[in-house]
Amino acid sequence: MWSSSHHNPVFLLQNSQARLETLAHDADFLARYDGVIRAFDAYLANEGSWFKKAHPDFKGAIAYFSAEFGVHNSLRIYSGGLGILAGDHCKTASDLGVPLVGVGFMYPQGYGQQRISSDGWQQNVFEHIDWNNSPVRPRLSPAGERFIIDIGWGSWKLRVAVWEVVVGRMRLYLMDTNVEGNSIPDREISGRLYGGDKTMRLRQEIVLGIGGVRVLRALNVPAAVFHANEGHCSFLFLELARERVGAGRSFKEAVLDISSSTVFTTHTPVEAGHDVFDEQLVAEYFKTYLTELGLSQDQFLDFGRVGGESGWNMTALALKLSGRRNAVSRRHGIVSRHMWSKLWPGVPEEKAPIAHVTNGVHLATWVQQDLAWTFTKYLGEDWWDKQDDAALWSRVAAIPDDELWMVHQRNKEEWFKVLRSRARNRWISGYADSSQVLAQGSLLDSSALTVGFARRFASYKRANLILHDLSRLKALLLDQWRPLQIVFAGKAHPADDLGKALIQQIYRLAKDPAFGGRIVFVEDYDMHVARYFVQGCDLWLNNPLAPLEACGTSGEKAAVNGVPSLSVLDGWWEEGYNGNNGWAIGACGGRGSGEDADAADAKDIYESLEKNIIPLYYDQGPDRVPRGWVKVMKESIRSVAPQFGGNRMVKEYVDKLYAPAEALVKI
Ligand SMILES: *Cc1c(COP(=O)(O)O)cnc(C)c1O
């Protein structure tokens, strides 16, 4: 039940009453149960947390706004990297005792699933979710009724209900507009993540930013710092200003005031990743609201403009109104300062006030369990608390090669087992023909060097780059003694036909007997499958068009599991690559775009594989342990875990961005 529910604890508990009653009389089970509960209670009660020690005077809470939160697969309120990062941020904040509360959306209509048709075309199947089987509860008022507040203005009556998710020591408040009394269109505002047209999106972002602040106020959350995770939440800054104007300050004073307690993180250099709304649309929705700010329509609209050009840009709004701004890797910091320096005329580009905090991943979520035990054995019980201490990780050298290799081999087999079981389920349910069952990975061979490529199919990620020279690739795949396998997964945006065409190109090869079942495409990439991918493959391939990868986190997840990257030197890899912990494609900053750059990058990939990666992997002694390869695995764990774990990231957010903000508020 655990595995068929994709590890949903709520579903498991609600559907195993009889079994639980039996176990209630099983002394062994109860002893283990007590042990787990004790450990959990100790976690919740931990008074000696890092935050208390590092910032004893900090008062109040940090309100973290995000359109999506990827906390766990059983709570389908995320779409991809941005959400997973938000989830990892929350879980790490809980671990460190950071007083963070999350603000986001409950998406009552559910979640889009990916199915691939027999000819390789992505279908979007909409799945309704039974929220009773998810770890979320309606927030109730003290009187025991649904907690619902009005957040509309002027003639717009809009009510939101609040749901609550408990993430360790922190809380996530999720808004839901599917409430009695709302108009039908308003009920659908929180229906689907990124659903609908521009108007719908604007309405969603109004609820997220403005509604979110009002919900926090109504819940009496003592928010001292407000953090907008990406431009979807930027309206929160307007609402904070409006509160101050309402208290008698001028708009100018209000803006100055809020800048001391606000943080904004930008997440992408890709133009299409920034919401820009038609000014007319914004003016229409904010007609009454802007008078409460004491601004004329033109003054108001100017806050959304970039360089005087028409258009309401949510990122520009946040950059102008927030006090501290950051990008998500060193390279992305440089790129963002270049992109946005026009917002600070007269300031030299390198001085544009956008810092960076490189993304990291929550190790407890992503490090495979047996490997975590191996770390406990060789690094010590407290590796977990000391995870950002580089010295600790030098002890990875003490793990015997064959032990690490065995754990990895088991993870790989576990991954293939999951893929086969998914393929079998498709087969049984009648959705797949036999060639699709093969395309989904039923022929995968656990002794072959296996490359993982899984991420959104946005065109800048160049999923088909490794297919550039098919005959050269085919020779590697079909090598009798040293074969290569590639497992792909990822979703294209429902409106992105180019992305879907990339999937189709790969899918056709996966079904083509000429490629020997050594190219695989796995449907419906999500957080659950992602864990098996990053824990089970041998090599993580990432070849975006630099410098468009803001950070990329899946390579970090792989690296901490001993899976090295073959990656373009962009995003985190430019900081993480040290010459011994994986392989680089191209040079720092990339080769630019175009046919020639693609060809040169593809050539790098083939050469690395042919000359370095494949020979190293297959250089196995009589015990079949590839010692040279294991050395790279260890170096990957040693160098990446302390620097790209969640603790390093969240501590940096606290020290650089949250704590100084709060200090100013007190003055
Ligand atoms: C980590 C993760 C991502 C982010 O991937 P990148 O392309 O490396 O940023 C996307 N989707 C899922 C399901 C993930 O787990």
What is the residue-averaged pLDDT? 95
CATH H-level name of the largest domain... which superfamily? Glycogen Phosphorylase B
Secondary-structure content class: alpha/beta
Q: What is the CATH architecture annotation of the largest domain?
A: 3-Layer(aba) Sandwich
Radius of gyration, in Å, reads: 25 Å
- Beta content comes to 5-15%
Total number of beta strands: 20
How many structural domains are formed by the residues?
3
Number of helices: 27
- Identify low-pLDDT runs: none
Bound molecules: pyridoxal-5'-phosphate
The description of the largest β-sheet is: 10 strands, mixed
CATH topology of the largest domain: Rossmann fold
Brief summary:
The protein has 667 residues and is of the alpha/beta class. The radius of gyration is 25 Å and the shape is globular. The model has no long low-confidence stretch (mean pLDDT 95).
Describe the fold and architecture:
This protein has about 675 residues and is of the alpha/beta class. The chain folds into three domains: about 1-45, no CATH class; about 60-105 and about 165-175 and about 195-360 and about 650-660, Glycogen Phosphorylase B (Rossmann fold), CATH 3.40.50; about 365-645, Glycogen Phosphorylase B (Rossmann fold), CATH 3.40.50. Helix content is about 45%, strand content about 15%. It is built from 27 helices and 20 strands. Strands 1, 2, 5, 6, 7, 8, 9, 10, 13 and 14 form a ten-stranded mixed β-sheet that branches. Strand 15, helix 20 (about 470-475) and strand 16 form a beta-alpha-beta unit. The longest helix has 29 residues, at about 400-430. The chain is globular, with a radius of gyration of 25 Å. It starts with 8 loop residues before the first helix and ends with a helix. The mean pLDDT is about 95. Bound molecules: pyridoxal-5'-phosphate.
